[in-house]
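Here is one chain, start to finish.
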Amino acid sequence: MKIEWAPLKVSPARRLQTFITALFTMAFFVLLFSSYLFVAASLFYGGLVLRSLILIYLVYMYVDHKRTHSIIDSNGWMLNRTNTLHRSYRNYFPVELVKTAELPPNRNYILASFPHGILGTGIGINMGVEISKWLELFPQIRPKVGTLDQHFLVPFMREALRAWGLVSVSKEALIHMLTKSNDPKHADNRDGFTSNAVAILVGGAQEAMDSHPGQYTLTLKSRKGFVKMAIRTGSSIVPSFSFGEVDIFDQVANPPDSLLRRVQSVVKKLTGVAPLIPVGRGFFNYTFGFLPQRRRIVQVVGSPIDVVRSAEPDAAYVDKIHGQVMEALEKMFDQYKEQYIPQSKNTKLVIQ
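Its structure:
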């Protein structure tokens, strides 16, 4: 294998971008394991005071999650969601945000977001850790990113996720977020915002297993839960497509009939998370490593699809709205692929 080395003479700004991206990437890959390891080590080897503090925290975490679903209703501390270091992370790729339609702040939204990629980096930056561009384009709308409910029962990791604007995709948590009042005078809106937008990476771990550079394979045909949630809460669905998301990481080949894919599928069924083996670049080479490649990611936010609210969604109506979402994504892909995908002539969108 021929190694492509990175140039030695690189500007300090780019070095900082690489360093910050390395920190975020390591956090995403090891935070879960390291959190459990720290708690286990503290309980086994810590003194009485440390053990007591850990136990108190674990009880608090469980009770708080049951009571509030671990949700921070506001945008939280803005220092955690936009700052110079987080902007360096954005600029590493860079990650961009494109507005194609108005989103009135008099209702709540589900952003049906595709593709997942390995980490969902574009969504994670634009609506999670660096929201300055979102607030510029969509004022008065709080951006949130949905993730698995069990992540909020991981000690310490949950605090980082909450600080970065992530929320659980459990039924209870989504209903809480998407039925919030849009009245500017309501007590919940004292922060000056009147709307919530929750991004859901609909394809989830299944779609992540199909993520390879240049391949836009979406898992959507059988995913209708987000449509039912939108109808139950009266939230508009906004199709969102992140061009370039699949290009920042490759992964070890895992065709559907391979042993690796079978193992990944079993683990995903048991835990909700697929054990991917990503292939990126290193600090000083472009051939292998755990860092994502410097590839442009452009999240295009489409037009809202309004729904009629109903506590018991009709199956035919769910299928109708689901079809509109698929059609909107196909049109969005065809409209913008030449603009945002290099050498896009042979790039196709596959929805399965």
